[in-house]
Amino acid sequence: MAKVKVHLWSALRAHAGGAEAVEVEARNIGQMLDALRARYPGLAPALDAGVSVSIDGRIIAASLTEPVAPGQEIYLMQRLKGG
Amino acid sequence: MALDEGKDVKGGHDAREYDHEGEFRHVGTRPDRPDGVDKVTGRARFGADAYAPGMLHAAILRSPHAHARILKIDTSRAEALEGVKAVVTRADFASGLEGEDWNILENIMAGEKALYDGHAIAAVAATSKFIARDALELIEVEYEILPHVTDVDEAMQPGAPVIREGAAEPGVPEGMHPNVVRYHESGHGDVEAGFAEADLVIERHFTTEATHQGYIEPHACLAQMGPDGRGELWCTTQGHWNVQKLCAKLLGVEASAIRVTASEIGGGFGGKTTVFIEPVAMALARKTGRPVKLVMSREEVFRASGPTSSASMDVRIGMKKDGTMTAAEGTFRLQGGAFPYAPMEFTAMCAFACYDLKHVRQRGFDVMTNRPKQAAYRAPGSPMAAFAVESVVDELCQKLGLDPIEVRLKNAAREGTRASYGPTYPRIGLVETLEAARAHPHYCAPLGPNQGRGVSCGFWFNFGGETSVTLALSMDGTAQIAVGTPDIGGSRASMALMAAEELGIPYEDVRVTIADTASLGYNEISHGSRVTYASGLAVIKAARDAKRKLIARAADKWGIDPEAVEWRDGAAHPAGENAGDFEPLSIKEICAEMGATGGPIAGHYEATPEGAGVSFATHIVDAELDPETGKTTILRYTVVQDAGKAVHPSYVEGQFQGGAAQGIGWALNEEYIYGEDGRLQNPGFLDYRIPVASDLPMIDTVIVEVPNPGHPYGVRGVGETSICPPLAAVANAVSNAAGLRLRQLPMRPARILEALEAKADGEG
């Protein structure tokens, strides 16, 4: 499985050794989040609280099946909602 | 137009949904709204218009204290009153809930403590609303009054009363007060290095007060639950599937046990995205076995439904003499009442989203106070951020002698810009809104004495969410669409226009209904500016699904392959000479015999669209200040916003105007005022002053259309972004008129007079 690079918002970085971005093996968002939980258990509470994911600038609010691929710009964001 | 044949819509999403070619026939026109006659004749049924045989009336006892331990509740005298059928307290709801479910339960019915003035303590169902209210006075509650705090900055200070021990989530910096329950930090670059490159750095402190969404219709519902444990609920809400889910959890029953029907809605603006009274009415209905109606008074709406957060903010921006922004930094403290989840991360992420910044950092603090649990309000968190940031940008422009729109254009985020919150922007429309604002006659119109002009930009993310739509064709070829998103802004008209566009039938031949929770798949709430985007996308896809079936019927009839049939002008046509020589079959002809050609025809769509596309706006406002009274008059207001594609331009303009009007109120008048006793002092529209028609000029609008690649027609949500710029735009106009800076909202007359007097005394 190929590795994807995931950027973390600042408050998460302390749970990933201070890294601004980390690499995990995943084919979709669900696998990516599971891999992050497994490798950095400290991230689990924030991930479990709900995250959105930006892939190449497109914000995925909830989907776990959205494909991810090497070379994409991937950012974790706190879960979006609105009024 | 492509028909999406074979495309998987169950999971997996195509970032490039935009596929429209040629001219629109229906989309972009302005027909009357289908619900208009009902609403102007009083026939539309809102939340309080539901009745049932044998119905009881409910009332809720609310805490008169801002913070108190509940030592004892004695309901015996109330229960003994003739006409009283049941009293419920926290013991009548589910136990063992966690997280936000527990927070919501705790908010709708207090447990061990009353956490704010107006917190529900108990509820009564009786044969009349007068008996129910009388019974409330017979409920004896013994309180131990505790110290309280209602101000966000005071709640963070050492020694502040603790709202709830152990509520802080991981990630809150060490040493913070226990009332600080969540923390956000994001950004990139080296802000100190960026500030060192600046010719001028300005750092300022800002505050905004909590404001209410101010919907006309109070919360109202009618609940019933039979001895079989199955119930129904009619209520005013922005999201009845969410109401179903929450009521089921709070009552400890299965979701399918409760069917929820959304009434017409008299405004929501985010405030009706959760539950307040619905589980209480359901609990009383379960206990009595009779229908129970519960309607909030206006005072209850203010005291116990969710206003937005109040904020305390520090913003620092560096700029070169040529207007280039070199760095930006912000700290945003939001209180969300006695519960977590004030939207501080959105405040932080939206704050500098309009700008292309090499060095940027933002921090957010979520703080608990003794106030009601905040609820979403149009672009939650973003307007206060724009107020602080756009005020500093304006002050930098003033001090450097630069044009505020030119500076914003110079620094504007555009496609390829790394957003302040991290990702790289795809195609966005901020520059187009700024250019349209610059070209608008408003921007160069002359100003008179005591008048000032303000400009501001604003940003919001927008949202997709779970969406289900069914489009059923009738025997006469008309269409009936079932959507699951309550119509809070004219969306039925937009859905009908998009279906008419796809099917090639008249707008009047489409009827759109808001289905109940038993009639359609799950639907996310009408929030996040998602309805015209997500339900609209779903309507288009459902119509295309129906078209595939119509084409198949025509192909069967002609004995040719479906691939040899095309759909245009509301009829099936042979795709070319090789397909055969057949007269077109209209939708009416195909539907008239559908029972004999394979059965009913309907199109469906169930998925979670994920291409909402972010949204930007630029506002211009002229204000006049009365130096003797401090009163501000809004003289002229222009909203310029990117809609992607305006499906029904009148309702897009209405959203632009509504957001501006609410933002003007937030800027000038509206505020929750708490007394020393921690009680809300102004729970009514007499003392909580929202703008009325005579307070406002006709708000001009300019619709910019930069297509959203994530929607077949290019639609972007428009409902929320319009409230982001007004706070700052008005503040900048007032400041320019007064010759001083006002950094506290609202800018009520007394506050302006005080600032003018301070300036006259040499302190300004």
Strands, helices and their partners?
The complex is a heterodimer of chains A (83) and B (764).
Chain A: E1 3-7, H1 10-13, E2 21-25, H2 29-39, H3 44-48, E3 51-55, E4 58-60, E5 74-78
Parallel strand pairs in A: 1-5
Antiparallel strand pairs in A: 1-2, 3-4, 3-5
Chain B: H1 36-41, E1 56-62, E2 68-74, H2 76-80, E3 84-88, H3 99-108, E4 113-114, E5 120-126, H4 129-136, E6 140-145, H5 152-155, E7 180-188, H6 191-196, E8 200-208, E9 220-225, E10 231-235, H7 240-251, E11 258-262, H8 278-288, E12 292-295, H9 298-304, E13 310-319, E14 325-335, H10 344-351, E15 360-367, H11 382-400, H12 404-411, H13 430-439, E16 451-460, E17 467-473, E18 479-483, H14 491-503, E19 510-514, H15 531-558, E20 565-568, E21 571-574, E22 585-586, H16 587-592, E23 602-607, E24 615-625, E25 632-642, H17 649-668, E26 699-704, H18 726-738, H19 749-760
Helix pairs in contact in B: 7-8, 10-11, 11-18, 12-13, 14-15, 17-18
